[in-house]
Amino acid sequence: MAASYKAAQIKITGPDLFAIREEFKQLPKNIAARVIGAGLKRAAYPGEVALRRTTPGTGPTGNLRRAIRTIVKRYPRDGAAVAVIGYIKAGSGKSKSAAGGRVKKGSDRAFHQFWLEFGTKNRLVTTSGDQAYIRSSGTENRKLRRALGAKQARELKDRNVRARGQGGYIASSFNTLGPFKFTTTNKGLNKGRLRTSPQYPKAFFKKANSPIRIAGVGAQYPVRNAFERSRAAISANLIVEMKKALENGKKILEDQARRVAQMKDLAKYL
Length: 270
Hints:
This protein is of the alpha+beta class. It has two domains: about 15-110 and about 220-265, no CATH class; about 115-215, no CATH class. The chain is about 45% helix and about 15% strand. The chain has helices at about 15-25, 30-45, 45-55, 65, 115-120, 140-150, 150-165, 220-265; strands spanning about 70-75, 80-85, 95, 105, 125, 130, 170, 180-185, 195, 205-210, 210-215. It has a three-stranded antiparallel β-sheet, with no helix packed on it. Strands 1-2 form a two-stranded antiparallel ribbon. Helix 2 (about 30-45) runs antiparallel to helix 8, helix 3 (about 45-55) packs antiparallel against helix 8 and helix 6 crosses helix 7 (about 150-165). The chain is elongated. The model is unreliable at about 1-5 (pLDDT under 50).
């Protein structure tokens, strides 16, 4: 069903499928690959629906749900085809900044699918900031440079940074997800406390005087759960759709034979 869940493969055996497989061998391989691929795509539909239901839609980009696809690969030389359900993660399609930062929003940007499937580990922010998080405006900087000179203006700014305690360890989404504002809660137990606008998970900010521990996220298994939920439906569909595919293959072969016969008849009058 997807590469990130290696066990997600459906194998069905039985006299019906064995007989169908033997009949497929009687078709030209390119036609067999064509109709088998179409049948697999139809049979896999419940898996795609299940994956959309198990994939969280609360993230800041929506990239995972947008990247869900059923991809069919045909092998005309072998008379075979395979279908894979999962997320597209190439990152080669059109994209734009999700909220003004480095994180992009697009149709094939599911790079984080592995983290969601298997979870992430705890990590530490161990690099302290040496500049003010809230920086002076460009106008203010130009005025300082004109009044004091570039070197003195820079030294004054550094002293102000240290005096205000703007250094320290900072965990922030400002550069990755994009700019945000600070607001103050006006009710409840957290009244008067600063928070980001927009709120987490679309933005976050934390500052401390010591390294910041960021807790990992537990595995959510959207691919595995979708596979388990749709396995029975896909298995039932496969038998039905392969029978349809075989009939479609025979019709294509009959149509080709009919056109060849018509061309021969036409050639008699040329």
